[in-house]
Amino acid sequence: MAIIYEINPPKIPDNVTPEEINSLLSKLLEKVSDISTLCDGIHVTDSVLGTRRISALVAGKLLKENHPNLQITISMRVRDKDMNLIKKIVQESIDLKLDGILVLKGDPSKENPGDSGLIPSLVVKQLMELGFGKKTDFFLSLPSNPNFEKIQKKIAAAPRGFMTQVIHSVEQVQRISDKLRPNGFRIIPCILLPTEKNENSAKFLELDWSGYKENPANFIKQVHSISGDVLITSPNDFAFAKETLKKI
After folding, report:
1. Taking the model in full, what pTM does it have?
2. Per-residue pLDDT tens for 116-157?
3. What span, in angstroms and rounded, lies between the C-alpha atoms of 50 and 63?
4. Distance of CA 132 to the CA centre of its chain
5. Deepest of 152, 158, 180, 238, by most Cβ within 10 A of its Cβ?
6. By C-alpha distance, which of 217, 130, 146 is closest to 185?
7. CB within 8 A of 66, min separation 6: which ones?
């Protein structure tokens, strides 16, 4: 049972210095510290849209060291990694006592537009067979309206659970929870907060938030009561996110 807030690590400017990296990380830590009493966990993304950012592992390490009681999970792209690097990252995550990893394909980046060909569900399956699942939790992503017949490989990989793409209705969450929670999977629906600063994100995702725009806090509570977990994202409006977390 957790209310989780999603953060994007800072973008890395060209010709950045180590001092500037430390300054960016300090600002990230300050932001998380500001809401640390308002949520149960933090999820750190990995180069969303292929944008070059400080690694999720580096950010996760900093947050766990400073907030050991917060659940800290990270995303891990497989598009630009091989299995040796993936196993190394997973082991480092375990050593840092992070609480889980969302394994996902990831968007192509300008610096590295190639594709390793790895499939997230098969990566998780292999990691589970190697015994990593006994030491950390793995998650896979789900569409907001999944075709359950087409996600059998994800189910067969036996992750700890699934983080959904952005949802917009209680019915979506109920459908996924009814199907997968009885099988022991943890379901973490993702909600994008409806604020003017997040409108471009909503348009990009083709999201209709009209059903919860007037009272997002109540919508979050409804979703949480069904799934037991919820992931809140507000990439461009931290102030609104903080106020919403206070209400719930």
Report:
1. 0.95
2. 889 999 999 999 999 999 999 999 999 999 999 999 999 999
3. 23
4. 19
5. 180
6. 146
7. 29, 32, 33
